[in-house]
Design a protein that fits this description.
Distance between the termini: 39 Å
Radius of gyration: 30 Å
Shape: elongated
Structural class: mainly beta
CATH topology of the largest domain: Jelly Rolls
Order of helices and strands: HEEEEEEEEEEEEEEEEEEEEEEE
CATH class of the largest domain: Mainly Beta
Length: about 290
Amino acid sequence: MALQTFTAGQTLTAAQMTSLQANTYNQTVSTKTASYTLVAADVGTRIVMNSASATTITVNTSLFSAGDTLFIQNIGAGVCTVTAGTATVSSAGPLAIPQNGSGLLYFTSAGVSIFYPSAVTASAGGLTCVKAETTFSASSSVTADSILTSSYTNYLVIVNWQTAAAQNLYMRLRIGGVSTSTNYNSQDLIGTGTTTSAQRFTGATEWMIGQSSGGAFNSTTILNIYQPQVATVTTMTANIIRNNGNYTTGLHAILTTGNQTDSTQFDGIQLLPSGGTITGNYAVYGYSKTV
């Protein structure tokens, strides 16, 4: 509740008494939609942050006294961070308040405070899905645009697929909804039974990321794309599990490395067969930059 100041001999009105009684149970609430610097009148109140963008609450000295408290709550999508201005802010936990999180700010002196968080920002996972698993059936081409951003440097693409008897699976990088069809290079190492072979493609129109599955036999490609959003050469590696016509003697192992030598910041991908159609599903993940 907000503090009220009375003078000696003052007679309290009924309204003032009612207000005091109500504040025993309900804090005075003020909602902020942008970064905010605390003022002395905030003591004993609840500050509610409501912003879609990241915000801060700045704490300065000589505004509060030892024993003063205030409650901070975040209902916005943007993370709010309690920030030391001229005062000291300590915490055994994080100072960042996620959406629907909160915490108590307690002052041990006019310039020293402790923040007690009641909710913390969850640690980011190692992989973040940027394109939910998508199914395609008898498609001549599959595209996904605006999924490669500067939020992540490297990406993982997992494709489960089937092609007709003589058709291979390819990938092209895209920018602004248009596929790039030049300057792809790759080197393959292929294991078939007890035989190992290799092949190289230079100046190609796409990367080959899967050889024929021989019809209704599932194959899988696990592909990493490195720095597609950086204005430099984009590289890739792929592990291909190929089941060609059956799941026994038709099982092949293919390891592929490749590059695309344009200094382009790509934002999408295209999957396409060398002819006919492809059936299957795929998903795209970004590798976290932080722990």
